[in-house]
Amino acid sequence: MREMLELPDTHRIGIVPGSDTGAFEMAMWTMLGARGVTALAWESFGEGWVTDAVKQLKLEANVMRADYGQLPDLDKIDWSDDVMFTWNGTTSGVRVPDGEWIPDDREGLSFADATSAVFAYDIPWDKIDVATFSWQKVLGGEGGHGVLILGPRAVQRLEEYTPSWPLPKVFRLMSKGKLAEGVFKGETINTPSMLAVEDAIFALEWAKGLGGLKGLQARSDANAVALDKIVAERDWLSHLAVDMGTRSKTSVCLSVEGADADFIKQFAGLLEKEGAAYDVAGYRDAPPGLRIWCGATVDTADIEALGPWLDWAYAETKAALAAA
Questions:
Q1: Residue 189 has pLDDT above 90, yes or no
Q2: What is the 3-state secondary structure (H, E, C) of the chain?
Q3: How far separated are the first and last CA of the chain, in Å rounded?
Q4: How far is CA 42 from CA 118, 150, 230, 292, in A?
């Protein structure tokens, strides 16, 4: 996985329990509190990290919010703080444009929830001090385990700072005053399912056969382009994220003209009943709409085939609600 991610030798990579959520919480609980905190929130998971920081850890965080479909003003971030953000907003279809907004001379640490971004985008690892993701997203493996990547500045934080709150056993990355290196050398805090490990190995071998990182990125790019074409050809369909430069290429969120939650529920239900598409309703906290997965595990031909099905489900739903 290290080789495929093109991860530099300066960064450590390890597997931790609890999927991507557990990995990010581990990073927050073990490293936050040494300095101020800025939390960026423009979708559900970003808001979740705000809750953890403010209500659980009792930190006086500077929260920079934006509506679904938008980004906060990245130029206004105070990098004397530790800064938390989602690289790819899974529930809003909005991503950060690149890593150029993260300064090289930052004082605080950059914490990136990179789920649904890793393997789909070029991640500038020199800009990231802490990254977490799970291999069940773009890579398509079994869930339940998170990947934690630490840059040298994050390791230094762990070695020099002890948080004031008690740490659950599964969050502890230090042992006898030193980094628990075993976590980053193949050992695990809890024993993972060997079936899940074999599944991850199979997924990596599959990805390698497609051309590795570049091959996975190319598949995601092609899927996003195919879905863009479908949207452009329909006046009742639009992207929730208007700016193409910050629009997700994996978790693509769409708005349906005049649709409320009941409309979307029936719309998605029709598609699922016909076996045409599954789990395409938008996230429960997001505005009513569709969420189409365009990651590398999907064949572009299947995205292209979705267009007529969307037309059919839209017309059927409108007719059913009009007759009710």
A1: no
A2: CHHHHCCCCCCEEEEEECHHHHHHHHHHHHHCCCCCEEEEECCHHHHHHHHHHHHHCCCCCEEEECCCCCCCCHHHCCCCCEEEEECEECCCCEECCCCCCCCCCCCCCEEEECCCCECCECCCHHHCCEEEEECCCCCCCCCCEEEEEECHHHHHHHHHCCCCCCCCHHHCCEECCEECHHHHCCCCCCCCCHHHHHHHHHHHHHHHHCCHHHHHHHHHHHHHHHHHHHHHCCCCEEECCCCHHHECCCEEEEEECCCCHHHHHHHHHHHHHCCCCCCCECCCCCCCCEEEECCCCCCHHHHHHHHHHHHHHHHHHHHHHHHC
A3: 53
A4: 19, 24, 25, 19
pLDDT category at 190 given cuts 50, 70, 90 is low
201 token code pair: 């190995």
d(CA 299, CA 123): 23
- Evaluate the CA torsion angle 23, 109, 184, 181 in order and state its sign: negative
Kindly give, in sequence order, each residue whose CB lies less than 8 Å from that of residue 218, ignoring residues fewer than 6 positions away: 211
303: which 2 tokens? Answer: 């995205």
Alpha carbons 107 and 26: distance in angstroms, whole number: 21
Predicted TM-score (pTM) of this structure: 0.94
Ordered domains of the chain (ranges, CATH): 2-206 (3.40.640.10), 212-323 (3.90.1150.10)
pLDDT digits (tens, 9 = 90+) for 120-136: 999 999 999 999 998 77
Separation of CA 219 from chain center: 17
Residue 138: the pLDDT is: 85
d(CA 197, CA 203): 10
